[in-house]
Amino acid sequence: MSKMKTHKGAAKRFSLTSTGKVKRAKAYKSHILTKKTAKRKRNLRKGTYIAAQEEKNIKKLIPYK
Asked: What is the pTM of this model?
């Protein structure tokens, strides 16, 4: 059986933790930042995890990470 191809778009956006969770960055931090509060922008800097329902699909896209 041939090797699976990594989905490069997903590989740039997601990474796996040592426990197997999928890490992601938060959205809404790229533009129109003037109307967002400092607290909101600060919280958008922090990473978070993918919802449990989506983990299986994302892990298929990044098999070797």
From this structure: 0.83
